[in-house]
Amino acid sequence: MEVFILEGLTELWLLIKYLVLGLIQGFTEPIPISSSGHLVILQKLFGIEIEGLSFEILVNFGSLIAVLVIYWKDIIRLIQNGLNYLLTKNPENKADFQFILYLIIATIPTGILGLLFEDYISSKLSTVAVVGITLLITGAALWIIRNLRGRKSEGDLKVKDAIIVGLAQAVALIPGISRSGATIVAAMLVGMKVETALRFSFLLYIPVSLGITVMSLGDIVGDDNIDALAIPYVLAFAASIIATYYSLRWFMNIMARGNLKYFSFYCFVVGILVILFL
């Protein structure tokens, strides 16, 4: 009897740990404090060693679903106006067509560097020590742009703006460098308005996350942990969807009020604590 109780408690604790991992990943994905860095920290604290990338891919896909739900009107508008411009050359639709092109251009650096350095990043840079240092870098970058208010809207963007933001997203492949933080910092440094920087950052997340998910389907299917951890994985996946949705809504309001400095403080504090104690 005691054995069954212990086994039940162990399974319950496992579910709780993966639920927390999914919630934290989902909550931290949209905000500029690095979801991948927090996953590394939590795995260390919980004593979980997640082999392979299946878990991270699944929870990131959950975040993607939440982003699609929030930005679906923008996505439909861009597709409709982009196709309309291709067919009719209507100048009213040119800005949206160019916006799509810039998103494609900004995706390329992440795709190339991800293919080239994925194994190195996973094996060498996914450590608590690296995350501590990169969180400090993220905090410093957020502090630099905390008061910036650009003037560029979608129709004012140039190819170089897309390349700069794309390179920033590629750097965020390193755990502890926030993807949303890096892209928003870069977008605001090139002069984008807050709302334009937000929209570009999270629409840019869609092709990258979708591409990673599709390319990793084979890894997920072949993951030895899938059968044993199916329920914890599904729980974390659902948690990431819900947490990302509400976190992104909250972050959009934070950005509108210009309170990025608080995320900078958070990254400094957590980065220092990680370096000192983990």
TrEMBL record:
**Topology relative to the membrane:** Multi-pass membrane protein
Note whether Hydrolase occurs among the keywords.
Answer: yes
Per the UniProt record, which residue ranges are transmembrane? 12-32, 53-72, 99-118, 125-145, 202-222, 228-248, 260-277
**Highest taxon in the source lineage:** Bacteria
For this chain, one GO molecular function annotation is: undecaprenyl-diphosphatase activity
> What Enzyme Commission number(s) does the record list for this chain?
3.6.1.27
Q: Quick one: a GO cellular component term?
A: plasma membrane
The UniProt entry lists the main location of this chain as membrane
Q: Name the UniProt key words of this record, in alphabetical order.
A: Antibiotic resistance, Cell membrane, Cell shape, Cell wall biogenesis/degradation, Hydrolase, Membrane, Peptidoglycan synthesis, Transmembrane, Transmembrane helix
Q: Which reaction does it catalyse?
A: di-trans,octa-cis-undecaprenyl diphosphate + H2O = di-trans,octa-cis-undecaprenyl phosphate + phosphate + H(+)
Top EC class of this enzyme: hydrolase
One annotated GO biological process? regulation of cell shape
**InterPro entries, A to Z:** UppP
Task: State its location(s).
Answer: Cell membrane
Also noted in the record is: Bacitracin is thought to be involved in the inhibition of peptidoglycan synthesis by sequestering undecaprenyl diphosphate, thereby reducing the pool of lipid carrier available.
Family listed: Belongs to the UppP family.
**Protein task:** Catalyzes the dephosphorylation of undecaprenyl diphosphate (UPP). Confers resistance to bacitracin.
Question: What is the recorded name of this protein?
Answer: Undecaprenyl-diphosphatase
Q: Which organism is it from?
A: Virgibacillus phasianinus
User: Its gene?
Assistant: uppP
